[in-house]
Every structure is written in structure tokens, then in C-alpha cells.
Amino acid sequence: MKIRYDEALPITARHDDIAAAMRDHQVIVVAGETGSGKTTQLPKIAYELGQRSIAHTQPRRIAARAVAKRIAEECDVELGAEVGYAVRFDDKTSAGTAIRLVTDGLLLAEVHSDRSLKRYDTIIIDEAHERSLSIDFLLGYLKQLLPRRPDLKVVITSATIDVDRFAAMFNAPVIEVSGRTYPVEVRYRPLAETGADDQLDAIAAAISELPRDGDILVFMSGEREIRDAADYLLGKKYPRTEILPLFGRLAAADQQKIFSSHPGRRIVLATNVAETSLTVPGIRHVIDPGFARISRFSQRLKVQRLPIEPISQASAAQRSGRCGRVADGICIRLYSEEDFDGRPEFTDPEIQRTNLASVLLQMASLDLGAIKDFPFLDPPDSRAVTDGLNLLYELGAMHAERLTKVGRKMSTLPTDPRLGRMLLAADKLGCLADVLVIVSAMSIQDPRERPLEHQQAADEKHKRFVEPDSDFLSWLTLWKYIREQRDNLSSSAFRRMCRDEYLHYLRIREWQDVHSQLRRTAKDLGMKAGSPNADPDLVHQALLSGLLSHVGLREPDGREFLGARQAKFMIFPGSGLAKKPPRMAMVGELVETSRLWGRTAAKIQPEWVEEAGEHLVNRSYSEPHWSTKRGSVMAREKVLLYGIPIIVDRLVQYGRVD
Ligand code: CDP
Ligand code: MG
């Protein structure tokens, strides 16, 4: 391998300091703006020091591939020889690979088979400021491992956020590499002020405002949004302008295009991947609509809800920093300065956004030990931990502090644990096709709109989807309708239909996206979707196995339900069951506003609860008496689930009771 450094990269100026620090310390932190050379140069410095088995982690597959390719090129070796990458389903490494690019999720999974990470002499945790669950797990794991592996070198890199916290965690020196930057002028152009119709219109307006020469980077929230924007901007027929999309699922060759030289102007439409992990060269201007899809579950849980949310101030600063690397730049934010000022400073670390039951499940499946002993950078609070453990116990994922078989399977499913439990039950009961649709629906916001001024009209349109005993079945009815319409209508007619019938087009698309991803994952895991239209009783039993603490028993003459642990709830007015609530119900969600509401409800049978909640119910017996008719001692049985009397006064043979 030829190790050379580009004099123009800011990191090159600190080469000797970094090499010395790496030699003298077990852990070092390298901080610096995007584009300063951390990702591409640090593994070379480690190699130069004699390290021959370097794991270099990236938060995203697309970056792992691109970085490996780049380093291989710089060192004049073939990709897959001394420099390679390994991501899920794609391994381009060989026995002689010294620099191995991996996703942080993959390195974490390797802990399973290699508890001391013996195969590595160096671990570079890149982009640590992203603070995904995988990164936090890795940092905690390394913290525990380092005393046992005094020979292991660790390099943590970060944008200039959170740097001191990493340094404090490992008692490590920080080396800052900062490059020359040119001034960036930030302009605020909120839609309301510019009179733009929508975001695409606002992007086009921003493009016309920018100087005609100079590449532009536009941050979009997802693949679909990028495709839409690309179509729209191509329609504008800008002279000598190339429109380039950039997102994770793009074919590798297309991703690579952003690094190629080109005549004329280029407009790159990118997801968050261009915020810090990939440096798109030569950008002069940035357009930042101010949104991103923010994962609400772990890095691995891609199919979980990824709501589009306003980005933090730190992210906005990173985005504007993408220009000003080569010359003065302009960043146009499609929101107001007041909006910016009101945003949170940083995006919360994922561990604080995530369902703790799923964190605990991951920890148990990776054998990371008890959560209270794990050295997290930001430990979750203990009440939330207890709640999470209780939920795992309820779902049958843990028993006596150990992961059960069900739990192990659940940990491989990219869903919230409750939903994962439903899918497993559905697989067993042979109603997975239907439950996949319902579970996907539960992961998104309801696409049925009820605008305040048109509530009646909307209800009128939605009436035909209502199933009297189950809002879950209403989802299925709506799904079938949407499928039919989509097959029969052109895409513009379908959009129009959605608008006329008060259905939210983008949410429907999201529903379909989540569904197809989940179906694919289920298939990969060997589950059988089977055909739709299963027996509704089975569908409900499958759902119930994930909703045991969302069961309620209605007072005989009231509307209020007695729920788990004495909670009282009512069925949400938008539900098909609100007018005539059943005696016993389960609800998809319990939401606390002015009072506790159960959303998405269905009528259920006590026997289903008894069966699905076998591991949770309490049974008591009273009035044992001799029955001459039956020739045995009989008693009255009472079955309680979380304090809810599911079954009362059932006559049973006392002799059989243990
Ligand atoms: O990690 P950091 O953001 O500090 O920088 P880097 O990713 O190592 O990038 C250093 C330089 O290499 C930047 O100027 C990138 O534009 C360039 N680069 C490239 O041209 N092609 C790649 N595949 C990766 C980086
Ligand atoms: Mg980098």
C-alpha cells in the first residue's frame, strides 16, 4: 500500500500530532468539520503506525462503501484487498484486508461471536456525534473492553459537537483538525414570505436566486422526495445543469457519480447522508428546507416510524457548512430565523428517543449485560428501564431475566416490540398477511384526515370503511379500497381521489412503504405471509398478544373502561366503537390528553385474553363445594389480568386446581 497524504487536507497539518497521540494513548478523539479528512486519512495514519487490522465504522452502508472505495484508490490497491468493506449482504474483504469499513451495526453484531473483538488491533468509531443506538452501545462496550484489551487502539471521530463528552468518557486527548473555510452567507426564505406554493416551488425559487455558476446541494428528507424533486426540477430545463440524486438505496455506480468531475452546473439532491458522512465535492451553495427523517427507533430498525421532523440547529449548521469549502458560499434556509432560533440545539441521542423495551431487547440479544451496569454516555432513566423490562415480560420476550425464544426472534424484527410480538403470533396463527397491513398502519399516522371545517364531510367519506367491532379491521377495509383504486387509476387521478376523500396521500404512500419493507423482512426471516382475509378472530388474537396491557373492561352501564393497573380509559371519539362500546376491548394505543383515551379499538373475548395472557393472569378460587351431580368438588374461579376481572364465577373442578 502506498501511503500518501494530500497537503491540501486540513488533517495533513496535524498528521504528526495525531500519530504521536495514537502511539501514546489507547483512545484518542479527533474532531473537525466535515471534509477535513478524518474519515479517509485516519485509517492510513493507523496503518502507517503498523496497525494491520483496523475496523472503521460508518453509520450508513452507502458511506462504508464509498469510503472504502476512496481509500483503496488513494492507496492504489484494489478494493477488497488491503482495503475493503463489509455491510449486511455484501462483503468485500479478504484475508489480507487491513482496513475494513463496516457499518457500526455490523461491528456490534460481531461482538456476538468475538467478545473481545480479538480480530482487530484498531477500532475507529467514525461520526460518533450521530449518537445512534449502535454507536452508544459500541462506545459503552469498548469502555468495558479496553482494560481487558490494553493493546487495542480506539479512535473516535466527531463533528465539532459533543467532543468533550467523548473525551471525558475515555479520558482521551482531543485533536482538532479544522480547515480553512470561506464565509457562508445564510439567507432565510420561509415559504409564507416568498409566496411559494409548496416546498418544490420554494426550492426552484431558491435555485433562481442563487448565482448561475456553482454546484448546489439540496437536502431532502427521503428517497421519494428526491425523486419527486428531480422530476420537478428536470421539468424546469435549466441550461447546462445536471440534476443528481443521492440516497442510500441508489445503485453504487449512481452514488459514485457525485465524485466525478463534470462540465456545467450540478444540483445534487441528497438525504441526510450528505450532512456529515459523505462530502460532496465542489459545493458552492446549499438549500436547506430544514427537515429530515428522524429515526424513532434503533439504527437497525429502518422500517420503524421515520417521521419527517424539523432538524436541530446543529444539523442546520452542518448543512450550511457543506458550502464554503472551496469559495464563498450561500446557504438558503426555507424557513424563518425565528423558526431556527426556536429549534433544539442538538438532536437527542437515539437512546433517548427510543422505546426502551427495544433497547433492552437488543442488549439482551447482544449479551451486553444488565443495563444498570452498562457504561452509557447517557444512561436511560431507571423508571423507564423498569417499564421496558415489564413490557418485555408481558410480551413473553423475557423470563427470569433471560431472553426467551420469542424474545430472540423479536430482537431480529425491525419493529417496536409490541408490533413484533403481533407479527410472531400472526405467523403462528396463519394470519400474517392481514397483520402485516395492520402493523404497518400502526407505525404511521392515520391517513384519514378530519379537517376541522370539513369533519362531517370527511366522516361521510370514511363511513364505508368502518367495521363496527374493530378499528383494526377498518384498516384492512381501507387498505383493500386503496389497493383497488391504485390499480385502476392513473397516479394523478389517485392523488385527486385521495384529496376528495380526505385521505392523506403521503401517509398512504408511507403506509405502503412500511408494509413492503416489513413484508420483505418477514420473508427474509422465514415467516410466511400467506393469503389475506384470514379469520378475524385469529387476527385479533394475534394483535392481542402484543396488547395485553391495553385491555379494558367496560362498566356495565358506563362508557369508561377499567384498564391495566387500575387505569381508566374511554374509547377515542374517532373510533368506530365509540358510540356502542363493547364490554371488553383492546386498544392499539393509550394516549393521555385531557384524559386517558384508547385509540384504535376492537371487541375481544375473555378467553382470548386468558390464553394470550397465560403467563400474566392471576387465578383465585372461592366457594369450594361438593357437587353430587358432577361427583366432585367444584369451586368458582376468578381470572384477573393486571387487576382486570377477565373471567368471574366460572365453575371449575376444584380437584384439578393446583
Ligand atoms: O471525514 P471528513 O468529513 O473529515 O473528511 P473525508 O470524508 O475524509 O473527506 C476528505 C476529502 O476527500 C473531502 O474533500 C472529500 O470531498 C474527498 N472525498 C472524495 O473526493 N471522495 C470520496 N469518496 C470521499 C472523500
Ligand atoms: Mg467523515
From TrEMBL:
Helicase ATP-binding domain span: 19-179
Enzyme Commission number(s) from the entry: 3.6.4.13
The record's GO molecular-function terms, alphabetically, read: hydrolase activity; RNA helicase activity
Is Nucleotide-binding included in the keywords of this UniProt record? yes
Keyword Cell inner membrane present in the record's keywords: the answer is no
Cite the Helicase C-terminal domain residue spans from the record. 199-367
Identify the keywords attached in UniProt to this record, alphabetized: ATP-binding, Helicase, Hydrolase, Nucleotide-binding
Question: What name does this protein carry?
Answer: ATP-dependent helicase HrpA
